[in-house]
Write the structure tokens for this entry.
Amino acid sequence: MKKRFVSILLTCALFSSLLSGCGENDLSKYPNGKLYVYNWGEYIDEDVISEFEEEYGINVIYDMFETNEIMFAKLAQDNSAYDVVCPSDYMIQKLIENDMLKELDFSNIPNAKNIGDQYFEQSRDFDPENKYSVPYCWGTVGILYNKTMVDDPVDSWDILWNDKYNGQILMQDSVRDAMMVALLKNGYSLNTTNPDEIAVATADLVAQKPLVQAYVVDQVRDKMIGGEAALGVIYSGEAIYTARENPDLVYVVPKEGTNVWIDSWVITKDSKNSENAEKWIDFMCRGDIALKNFEYITYSTPNTVAQENIEDEAIKNSEVAFPDLSKISTESYKYLGYDADRLYNDAWMEVKSADY
Amino acid sequence: MKLFKDNRNAHVMASPYMAWAFIFIVVPLCMVIYYGLTNADGAFTFDNITTILKPGYLKALKRSVILAIISTLVCFLLAYPLGMILASMKLRKNAYIITLFILPMWMNFLLRTLTWMTLLEGKGVINTILEFLHLPTLNIINTSGAIVLGMVYNFLPFMILPIYNALNRIDENVINAARDLGADSFQTFCRITLPLSMPGILSGITMVFIPALTTFAISTMLGGSKILLIGNIIEQEFTQLYDWHLGSGLSIVLMVFILLNMIIENLSDNGGNS
């Protein structure tokens, strides 16, 4: 009996020393508390996180998501799980409509002035009064192709239905991006809520399925670099990186148009560390930090200071990284409401479960 | 063992396990049933369960059952002879050979499946070697074949171990008696070895069939998300679509299949004992 008592006591002592040890360490290293950040995978230069931690004495807990929908499900379950999040346009609109975001105090985010006016203007599509979001990255969606494997001209979404490239095509495994391709191919709006148009697009995607090698998200990049596939649907931000790794890869925005998207920082409604979150957003808007991130992730930055300081002239003037939006037909995703969401999801389910 | 002779003492000793089972098995199960039988407004409904009858869902369920049966069968055909070989080796303390079969399980399951992806890819390791030897390449990545391969690879140890244990436990005298009484090898196998190893076979089947039926990671990675299994749909309902009600309803349907499997196992187990 005595022995057992001693062992329990020892265990308790061990645990308490462990816990208190943690506490002391945290407090001396991070006197200003914590910050829970939720961002896309491969969407930051990780050095930037430790720089922020050192400069502000805030402990950053950094998590990643793969699609907007996964991010939404997580926040809907527990809004306070994260303080600062980086969703895309239509999802920000959905978050605003569901009252899940906190208004930003721009007096705490002075560096927001570095973000080009046109990006705030564009943000009004989903954040009408620019109250909730600060742009982080933007770009288009297009086709990345390997010029040693494709000998047809690539200028239209139609090429993704060309059976010459059977098993050589990579599609996006997320509902809006996949449907977008089929809707634009048929000349419809990528925000359509017309069931007939959605049905046509669905049938097209089902017909395309035998040609598709795989439905993937982040893996498009590595599979294209490795020469696994000839054509892939990809975000423009990956184009510079993939071309650097494999010079045979070319990025094209098809003539039917594309989705132009913005990913922005927002703060959750129930955030417990919203002051720290504003510091984070301000830090991300600093010219040198934005440039560092741009050089690492190669997604177009809306930060004018960073844009001016890009050293590589070719990238600075790149049509891919900073396209002239007046020359291509573009549309942004909008949140379409619950019923249309269900329509899209059912359509996507039909595509994914189809035999081929 | 003395401890447990006292009934009250046994009760006290078991209480932590009972509490554990209650918190982590009974409570979640009740939650699944609650969510599965209600809609977003909290009203009672069977809609979530009947959704399984919609074409897309039914197709995915059928596909899952077929692939799970194939994988279980392949596992059994591979594991039984292997179990017999291992049992016949009469290993002392079961030693290293058994460890060899458990060894891969020390590595993370997702990591092992991911490795198969790189092995099987069009320009992956296996095809590079085949091309070097001027042999025809293997194109099974993103097909049902690759999913079955992944399932068999991952779940094979769960089939081998119970079968090996059951075979190992067979008293040699029983087999010798059969031979003395004039049975040939085939008869001995059919009438002695196989029936006596039945409990091992049945628990092996359950331990392979159920994870194979419910998996979503293997089909996502080795099927390129082109082959939708019922596990994928349930996962999507929770992670992508945030529809816990439908996800739970579909889980209940899947539970019925698992219960069926266990009932069949119980029935044949009792039959074997009597």
Observations:
- Residues 1-36 of chain B form one domain.
- Chain B has 13 helices and no strands.
